[in-house]
């Protein structure tokens, strides 16, 4: 069965899934394989739960009624998404970057949804599987689509662009993320810039911050839309407050580092003719979730939970912002940063030196990488050590910053802070 025939089956309901635990009626089940699982083995279960067909690539699981045998399930999923994209009339905005992708995506989405039927990447479905699934979640009713693209090596963004075929693009920043896979900061810049290269090659358009010289340089031959010049930062202690077109926006986002994320959402809203009052309303009502700069008020402690992910660039701005907050009683809990390769030792020591320089009342470094650093403050090699220490030494009346890579799971410490 070729991709056109599979598309006819898909377009009856516009439903696909790769997880039998989430199967919906009349969905197409794609039996993906990974290091520790083989989706082909679950094809019959998917059908029993309501899937109309299961796309498989191992003949022993094939029957002529409910399975479709293909050469490679993942490639078929990607090809189906690519084919679907060609049928969509929706305007697609792609975004990538080292920090702030998800917050930016959500801000753009809430702004554009004030005027358009809009859909965006859910969660962090932003890789070679997530982007196809995102596109296949779009129906012909969508007018705008926001597609987040993540990458940890060269040519990945280029490949994702070949599937999503974006009309517009935006790169949040070039930072110290995934250094191991990209081969250093220059590799990050090269890899992320594949989005701009795609836009240039296909005569599409980039949104850029005119104050970022590197962004200006990388979009030299591209159609560009610059940030609205009327957008001005007023305050960020702790919540970002800004003005645009004589309007004042008071947000639920902390830290001046979120200014650019808000500014591009405003700029995109203006460009697509969303009313100023609607832009203001959308941004003021947006509250971050999922461990991203969440404000949590406990009985005696005020917590900034930013434990969804971390790299040296995001750690630096989070610490600098936290240091500016008014309070003598501050505690920082930092967890290891992953995927730094040979740069891990020097980057962790840099963060330790920076955090130590602020002389917070309490500073805790958690993880094997931080344990190798030199510091005057507390080092704990594992989360369990942190848990034991906090249980024996309760934190009281503190402003607390919690930040670390996803794999550290530092949000668990909330269970032991009152």
Write a brief caption for the model.
Residues 96-268 form the Mur ligase central domain. With 418 residues, this protein is of the alpha/beta class.
Biggest sheet features: 6 strands, parallel
| Helix percent band | 25-40%
Kindly state the number of beta strands: 19
CATH superfamily of the largest domain: Mur-like, catalytic domain
- The largest sheet has its strands arranged as 6-7-5-8-9-10
Task: Provide the residue-averaged pLDDT.
Answer: 92
Task: Please report which band the strand proportion falls in: under 5%, 5-15%, 15-25%, 25-35%, 35-45% or over 45%.
Answer: 15-25%
Q: Which structural class best describes the helix and strand composition?
A: alpha/beta
Amino-to-carboxy terminus distance: 59 Å
CATH topology of the largest domain: UDP-N-acetylmuramoyl-L-alanine:D-glutamate ligase
CATH classification class of the largest domain: Alpha Beta
Count of all domains = 3
**CATH architecture tag of the largest domain:** 3-Layer(aba) Sandwich
Count the helices. How many? 16
Report the radius of gyration as a whole number of Å.
Answer: 23 Å
What spatial form do the alpha-carbon principal axes imply? globular
**What are the low-pLDDT stretches, counting only 5+ consecutive residues below 50?**
none
């Amino acid at each position: 069965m070729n991709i056109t025939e599979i598309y006819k089956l898909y377009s009856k309901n516009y439903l696909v899934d790769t997880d039998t635990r989430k199967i919906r009626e009349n969905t197409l089940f794609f039996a993906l394989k990974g290091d520790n699982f083989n989706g082909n083995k679950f094809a019959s279960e998917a059908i029993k739960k309501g899937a109309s067909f299961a796309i498989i690539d191992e003949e022993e699981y094939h029957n002529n009624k409910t399975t479709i045998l293909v050469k490679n399930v993942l490639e078929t999923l990607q090809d189906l998404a690519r084919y679907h994209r060609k049928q969509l009339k929706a305007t697609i905005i792609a975004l990538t970057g080292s920090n702030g992708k998800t917050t930016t995506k959500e801000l753009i989405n809430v702004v554009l949804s004030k005027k358009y039927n809009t859909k965006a990447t859910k969660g962090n479905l932003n890789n070679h599987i997530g982007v196809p699934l995102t596109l296949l979640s779009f129906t012909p009713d969508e007018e705008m689509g926001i597609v987040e693209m993540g990458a940890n090596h060269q040519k990945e963004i280029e490949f994702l662009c070949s599937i999503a075929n974006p009309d517009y693009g935006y790169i949040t920043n070039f930072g110290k993320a995934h250094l191991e896979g990209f081969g250093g900061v220059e590799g990050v810049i090269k890899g992320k810039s594949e989005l701009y290269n795609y836009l240039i090659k296909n005569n599409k358009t980039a949104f850029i911050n005119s104050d970022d010289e590197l962004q200006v340089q990388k979009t030299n031959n591209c159609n560009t839309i610059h940030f609205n010049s009327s957008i001005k930062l007023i305050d960020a202690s702790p919540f970002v407050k800004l003005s645009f077109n004589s309007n004042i926006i008071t947000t639920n986002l902390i830290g001046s580092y979120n200014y650019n994320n808000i500014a591009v959402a405003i700029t995109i809203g203006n460009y697509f003719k969303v009313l100023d009052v609607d832009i203001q309303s959308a941004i003021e009502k947006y509250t971050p979730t999922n461990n991203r700069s969440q404000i949590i008020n406990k009985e005696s402690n005020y917590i900034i939970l930013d434990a969804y992910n971390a790299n040296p660039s995001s750690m630096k701005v989070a610490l600098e912002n936290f240091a500016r907050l008014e309070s003598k009683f501050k505690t920082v809990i930092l967890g290891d940063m992953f995927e730094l390769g040979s740069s891990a030792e020097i980057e962790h020591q840099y963060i330790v030196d920076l955090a130590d320089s602020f002389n917070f009342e309490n500073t805790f470094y958690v993880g094997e990488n931080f344990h190798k650093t030199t510091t005057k403050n507390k080092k704990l090699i594992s989360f369990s050590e942190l848990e034991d220490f906090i249980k024996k030494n309760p934190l009281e009346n503190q402003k607390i910053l919690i930040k670390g890579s996803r794999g550290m799971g530092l949000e668990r410490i909330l269970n032991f802070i009152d």
